[in-house]
UniProtKB/TrEMBL annotation:
Molecular function per GO: L-serine hydro-lyase (adding indole, L-tryptophan-forming) activity; pyridoxal phosphate binding; tryptophan synthase activity
PANTHER family on file: TRYPTOPHAN SYNTHASE, TRYPTOPHAN SYNTHASE-RELATED
Gene3D superfamilies referenced in this protein's UniProt entry, alphabetically: 3.40.50.1100
Protein role: The beta subunit is responsible for the synthesis of L-tryptophan from indole and L-serine.
Residue ranges that the Swiss-Prot or TrEMBL entry lists as coiled coil: none
Protein name: tryptophan synthase
Residues of the Tryptophan synthase beta chain-like PALP domain: 80-418
Amino acid sequence: MKNIPYKIYLSEEELPRQWYNVRADMKTDHSPILNPATLKPVTVSDLEPVFCTELAKQELNTTDRFIDIPDEVRDFYKMYRPSPLVRAYCLEKALGTPAKIYYKFEGQNTSGSHKLNSAIAQAYYAKQQGLTSLTTETGAGQWGTALSMACGYFGLKLRVYMVRVSSEQKPYRKAVMETYGAKVIPSPSDTTNVGRKILAEFPDNTGSLGTAISEAVEVAVSTEGTRYVLGSVLNQVLLHQTIIGLESKKALEKCDEYPDIVIGCAGGGSNLGGLMAPFMQDKLAGRHAPHFIAVEPASCPSLTRGKFAYDFCDTGKVTPLARMYTLGSGFIPSANHAGGLRYHGMSPILSQLYHDGYLDEARSVEQTKVFEAAELFARVEGTLPAPESSHAIAVAIQEALKCKETGEEKTILFGLTGTGYFDLAAYMAYNAGTMTDYIPTDADLERGFSCIPHLDGIQ
Ligand SMILES: *Cc1c(COP(=O)(O)O)cnc(C)c1O
């Protein structure tokens, strides 16, 4: 028997030097992102008023398989990467499974999640371009925190539109963001036209990521030296997050391991896209056939119950149109939903891979089941997981228990995207037994679908 340690660390030297662009290998590229005014595929110059130029180029890059990680970004990565790949011996034992479970832990930085991997890259390109400030939205707060750290590092100003319900649930997130120099504004707000319009119509609106995006974009395009950045969904973000999968693959190779099953939680799809990318490369090339599973909340089920259609990426309908699995840009998960992953759509890359069957499966989990898995994981593996990450834990446990039944020694890899220190209100609700599940009815979903635009002649 090989002696595989609990934690497998790569050296700083082994930190990947390039990100992997899965689009260069996809059998069918995702449908083009459309300019909402012309319904023509967007070009770099369409995107430039909103995004940094280099990031706009990455967004539309279908040809370069590998893209160099700039030295400054790689140096920043070294402050918290390579992140550990952990063999979950204690979880295996608690479950009594013959499966070998590994997780890639992205929570060991102050922002507490994988989002810093893209935040630092995006801030770097903004700085390179000579921009002075950025705007963004944040839901649960991880992205806003990560970007605050990145902007603080490069001396950029940052304005964060934070979904109102989250800003009320998570006041400490704001304290961290402000410490790094960001300005945090609960959304919808009266600082933008789109926010004022939404508040006039629905004064008690608790906000959504879609609305916060609309506000952040409005400010970016109307303020000198300012661009908008997004923490998930976009191709550029998936690209930066491939650092997770590339490191995981290298670390597994050191142990002569290759995953049979790769599991990730899916909000906008960036951590799963990044974790599975190098394994997807193998699958697309016919070298290996790992089984990929996306896990989403039952209360925001874009892959399992959404439509594959062109839709806006925001509620205010100011962003380009992407063909993706979507619940409709007006969809807002029920207010009792505490587990993050509340975005209405899904990364166009992941959507296409799912549609074509390369991303094999999507599963949804109810939040009380998610917290059950989180509790078990915390007790046996020692780390308090983020609720988002715990979706992946729940399905990793399901798969490990299947192995227990069949006796198969499958190798399971999942993404532990973050820690749960800022989700203590949700843990308190779970511990008090007051957490409830709400699964949207078909009628609830129909209301969201009714916002999906009908684009004549465009599939
Ligand atoms: C944002 C976040 C997610 C979900 O985002 P993806 O883009 O789908 O990866 C998952 N886990 C944590 C901890 C997060 O902060």
